[in-house]
Amino acid sequence: MKRTSCLRCLRPSSVCYCHTLRQINNVWPVSILQHPRESKHAIGTARIAQLSLGACSLQVGECFSLAEAAIDPLQSVLIYPGDDADSLESLSCSSPQTLIFLDASWRKSHRMLMESPQLQALPKIGLQPNSKSRYRIRKSKSAQSLSTLEAIVLALSCLEQDEEKYSPLLESMDWMIEKQIEWMGEAVFKKNYGFDDDAGIDADACTDKAEQKKHP
Q1: Sign of the CA dihedral 47, 163, 98, 127?
Q2: 3-state secondary structure string across the chain
Q3: How far is residue 130 from each of residues 70, 127, 155, measured CA to CA in Å?
Q4: CB burial class (10 A; 0-12, 13-18, 19+) of residue 150?
Q5: CA 44 to CA 114: how far, in whole Å?
Q6: pLDDT tens sequence across 166-202
Q7: Contact, 157 vs 28, CB < 8 A?
Q8: Please, are residues 216 and 84 in contact by the beta-carbon 8 Å criterion?
């Protein structure tokens, strides 16, 4: 018998997380450009942001035109690491702009960027996490790795100087992850995703253990 799924969060009805979601009016709009493969991940975090934030769009594709994505290049910045990326603090005195996030593995996000010249031309902003990821079912070599949702929360919290406002998004993610761990069993979780206190955690957009993504 085929199990039923929630039409909103797309999770099986038994682990639907919609009851954990809180509507939040973000001052800085968020635009998530998602690789097609990420849209198939059951425990991806980008959808939590889409369902929770008042000003958040999510579009799926591999090559993006800013016009087709309804993105104003004069009022947008790309959250992406690089030598040419400015710090988040550089926006502190700016009027709200659209924050663009690529939801993909590192390899695929780089390919998306290379195939989208208009995205390459946008100002880049790098993030500096001050804590480890709470996304506990991916391992990473870097303690700086964040899931897409965590990167969004970090950016909005810093820009609005209100960490508490966006904490409900992380609580929804925590609930989703806990249910996934319960389903797989503690033994399987520790075997596949066990880590020590010095290990970093990678993001939801990992397509497999060999292909991981990070947000700076």
Answers
A1: negative
A2: CCCCECCCCCCEHHHCCHHHCCCECCCCCEEEEECCCHHHCCCCCHHHHHHHECCEEEEECCCCCCCCCCCCHHHEEEECCCCCCEEHHHHCCCCCCEEEEEECCHHHHHHHHHCCHHHHCCCEEECCCCCCCCCCCCEECCCCCCCHHHHHHHHHHHHHCCHHHHHHHHHHHHHHHHHHHHHHCHHHHHHHHCCCCCCEECCCCCCECCECCCCC
A3: 32, 10, 12
A4: buried
A5: 23
A6: 999 999 999 999 998 888 777 766 666 665 433 332 3
A7: no
A8: no
**Gap between the Cα atoms of 185 and 191, Å rounded:** 10
Nearest alpha carbon to residue 35 among 1, 59, 11: 59
Place of tokens 């450009």: 33
In angstroms, the CA 162 to CA 47 distance is 22
CA-closest candidate to residue 157, choices 84, 53, 13: 53
Strand 86-87 relative to strand 124-126: parallel, antiparallel, unpaired? parallel
Cα-to-chain-centroid distance, residue 124: 16
Amino acid at 97: Q
pTM: 0.85
Distance CA 9, CA 48 (A): 8
From residue 62, alpha-carbon distances to 67, 106, 108, 109, 141 in Å are 15, 13, 8, 9, 26
Dump pLDDT digits (tens) for 105-157: 888 999 999 999 999 999 999 998 888 888 877 666 565 689 999 999 999 99
